[in-house]
C-alpha cells in the first residue's frame, strides 16, 4: 500500500470498468497521473464491458450505407427522444442535454474516435429494439446496432492497452482490492477517498470474491471520478427502486446479467457526499433471460437476443399483444408479462427459427466473433444447424424443452412451469391461428407483418430472420419452447452530471472535485436514456461520459 501513498495523483478514478478506463486514458493523454481504485482484482479490468456483446449505437455509418440504410442525426434524435419520454423538469434537465450531445457524437466523431484506437466493426448492422409501433414513439427506425469485431473484450482492449502502457511509464497506479467506503469532503469540496483494503484474491474474471477486510486506506487528489456501475446484481436495491406503477409487480424470481460486484454501493456514498441522485426508478432489465447452464457468477443469466419470429406467450398461455414481439419493446413487454401475476413467459419456435434467429448476449457466448476469426464466424453463422453455444443450452439449459409435436411440447413446458399448467387446447388455438396466416404472402397478423418487413432489410434476410413458416411444420422441427425469466442488467438513473461529467449537488451546482461517468451516472446526466434504451447505447454511454470526465478533469 506504500506505493500508492507515495504516488502523487492528479486524479483518483474509482472503478476500473470501461468508463474508468476511458477517463484514465484521456487523463494520461494529457500527461496527468491517475490512481485507479477498485474493490476487485486485476483480472476484472474492464468490468462488465468485457462480458458484453460489444454492440455500439452509431448513426449514418459506411456500414449502414452499404446495406442501403438511410439514417441521419435528425432521425436518430427523433427516435431517442421518442423512446426516452423525458417528462421530469429537474431530474431530466441534464439528461436531455446529454441525449442531444450523445446522438450528435454517434453521428459524427464516435466511429472515427474508436477506429483510431483500433476498433473494427462487423459488416452486418443489427436492428435492435424495433419499437412500439409508432413513428414518433419508442424504437429504432432503422438498424443501428454495430457489432464490434472482437465483442466486449475488444472494446476493453483498445482502452486498457494504452492505460497499461501508462502504468509502465509511471502515469497510472492501480489499487486493486481497495473498496471505497467514503468520499473525503471538506467544506463541500471532494478531496479523495477512504475505505477498506480487502484480502488478496486470485479469483478469475467475474467470479464472486470475498469481502474480508484486512486494513484501511485514505487517498487524496484534486479530482475524484466515480465510475463504479449500477445496481444490477443488488436485487435488494432493484426491488427497492422497482417502478410498480409503470412496469407492474416486482418479480419474485430474478436472475443476474452482471457479476456480483455490480452492487450500487457508490450511489449512496456519492449521495452522502452531496451528489444529487435522480431517476432512481428507471432501469433496464430484460424479459428474455435464461439460466446459464455453466455459471460464472451467482445466478448467472444470459439474455437471448431474438429475431422477430418466435411466438411469445405469457405464463397462462395467452399470446402477448402488439407491440410485444421479440426484440421490439422491452419495457412494454415487461409490463405485459408481470401483469399476469407471474414473472416468466414462453417462446414457442422451431429448429429453423433457433438456427437463424437466436443470438446470446455475452462475449463468452460468441467465441467466433470474440476471437476475431472470419473463417470460424462464416462457418458458424451461415452453416446449417444450431450454433455451438446455443446447442449447449438446448442440451443442458434448464429453460429449454423440445418435442416433435405440440402436445408433447406443452407437456414438457408444464414440467418446468413455475406457475399455472398450460392448457393444450388453449395453446393449440393460439398456434393454429398464427399458422393459418402463413398460407398467404400477406396477413392481418401484426407479428407476421413485422417479420415480412424485417426481411426487406438485407442484413435480417441473410443472417437474422427465418423465412416465415408454420410452427407445426415437421420440416422445420423439432418444436422448441423456452421459459423466459426476468434478467437484471442496467441502471438508467444515477448521479446527475453536467456535460463535463461534473457531479451536480443537491443545490443544483457542481460539486468541486467530483466527477462521475458510466452507469453510475445514468450513462450521462443521471439518465441519458430516459425511460427506454435503444440498445448499443450502454458501452457508448460509458465511453462518451468517461471521455468527457477525463478531458474535463485534465483541464482542471
TrEMBL record:
- PANTHER family cross-referenced by the UniProt entry: 3-KETOSTEROID-DELTA-1-DEHYDROGENASE (PTHR43260), KSDD-LIKE STEROID DEHYDROGENASE RV0785 (PTHR43260:SF1)
Keyword field: Flavoprotein, Oxidoreductase
Entry annotated with the keyword Flavoprotein:
yes
* InterPro entries from the UniProt entry: FAD-dep_OxRdtase_2_FAD-bd (IPR003953), FAD/NAD-bd_sf (IPR036188), KsdD_DH (IPR014614), Succ_DH/fumarate_Rdtase_cat_sf (IPR027477)
Which GO molecular function annotations are given, in alphabetical order? steroid dehydrogenase activity, acting on the CH-CH group of donors
- Top-rank lineage group of the source organism: Bacteria
FAD-dependent oxidoreductase 2 FAD-binding domain residues: 10-539
UniProt source species: Gordonia crocea
Q: How is this protein named in the record? A: FAD-binding dehydrogenase
The UniProt record lists the keyword DNA-binding: no
